Amino acid sequence: MTAQTPSLRYAWYVVAVLMLAYISSFIDRQVLTLLVKPLKRDFGVTDTQIGLLIGFSFAIFYTFLGIPIGRLADRRSRKSIILWGIVLWSLMTAICGVTDTYSQLFLARVGVGIGEAALSPAAYSMITDLFPRHKLGTAMGIYNLGVYVGSGLSILLVALILKLISVEGMWQVPFFGEIYPWQTVFLIVGAPGLLIVLLIAFTVKEPVRQQTSKAKVEMSEIRAYFSANRFSLLSLFFGIAFMAFSSYATTSWTPTLFVRKYGLAEAQAGILLGAIITIFSTAGVYLGGRYADKLTKDGYPDAKMRVGYQGMLIGTLLAVTILAMMAFTSAPLPVFVVLLALICFFTALPYGAATAALQEMVPAPMRATFSAFFLFVVNIVGLGGGPLAVGFINDKIFGDPNQVHLSLACTVLLGCGVSCLLLYRGLKPFVRSTENARLAVN
């Protein structure tokens, strides 16, 4: 193995370690989804405030800081940026466990978002420098397994922890005083990130960048490239953003739907949803990456965008079915669970392929910066908007906590439909952008 051509075995190892970091980040990010009931009881908050806490509090700095961090990752050590990010989000997650007001918890969640902003722009750039084009979809798909494995495991872990602790009364914690028992969840899930820091620090090396002679580009060049390729880039950015809009709404509010509509306990709801996401969403993002690589080998120039469009088309049809079932039938639990598993699978198909598509659409020296722009749009729309939309619709339109199933179904249909349309419109422009990216570095 040389510095310029790392072995594929080592490259897959780096992907696995970065995926582990991504899993940790999503566990810390999604941990609130099963804590809606104790939060409302102990902090006296509304569904809209819950939506703000789950999504917007995290997304506001995660999205805005991602761009300067991505710009930094195009110039400085991506490994160091990732390490500092993991340390910060792990510590801020633990701090969430010792807050005693809604405002303090909101600010701690902002801190988690600041730390997590460091991971993906740098990780995307590192992975792209380690793999040939025909394996990039699979590599990105495996990295992005972290989204769904982390989401599923966070829900499963919280469900299991809630079964082991009492959610009433107060506990005494040394140095911090009294906290609610459910807040210990934050202390538990924040700790593993520090172990991942050691793993990356001692076993992962900073990859040699592709096209190093043009590694430093000015912001004016980035603006010019964006202007020349804006239709394809915006179709991808907002297409995946609205996919995330529906996905974050689903992971954030389905446990509450299970509790309010079907009478499940929080732990039961978490185990059920966690299993669905861990199995079906994880399979979707992995197979989406593999399918995109197969289409690339078969000669489809729009392969990675095509996979996204196909997944969201099926997701839209499933969302229509779920809304109709929720609105006009008794919606039996087994039928809803089957439909939920299917929509989780198909709406996960685009994610690994889409992140690989972005790397092909822009020149190598701009990849981390454009990845940060991509994540900005995805998270401000998806993470910031999806959970908030469900809470807002429930409070302001239906005005009834027990109508959360309709609020969620409307939100998911909106996200899937818009995503499908945008990814379809971006098929031909995507091919032109991949050609522009190749010409830019020759």
Q: What is the compact description of this entry?
A:
The chain is an all-alpha fold.
Helices and strands, with pairings:
Blueprint: H1 8-30, H2 36-43, H3 47-73, H4 78-96, H5 102-116, H6 119-130, H7 133-143, H8 145-164, E1 171-173, E2 177-179, H9 184-190, H10 192-203, H11 219-228, H12 230-262, H13 266-297, H14 303-328, H15 333-361, H16 367-398, H17 404-425, H18 427-440
Antiparallel strand pairs: 1-2
Report what the structure shows.
There is one protein chain. The chain is mostly helical and 442 residues long. Helices cover 80% and strands 1% of the residues. It contains 18 helices and 2 strands. Strands 1-2 form a two-stranded antiparallel ribbon. The radius of gyration is 21 Å and the shape is globular. It starts with 7 loop residues before the first helix and ends with a helix.
Amount of helix: over 70%
Whole-number mean pLDDT: 85
Q: Report strand order across the widest sheet.
A: 1-2
**Sheet with most strands:** 2 strands, antiparallel
- Derived from helix and strand composition plus strand pairing, the structural class reads mainly alpha
H/I helix tally: 18
Distance between the termini: 26 Å
Compute the CA-based radius of gyration.
21 Å
Low-confidence stretches: none
Strand count: 2
Q: Topology as H/E string?
A: HHHHHHHHEEHHHHHHHHHH
Strand content: under 5%
General shape: globular
Protein name: MFS transporter
Domain Major facilitator superfamily (MFS) profile: 14-427
Organism: Runella salmonicolor
Pfam families: MFS_1 (PF07690)
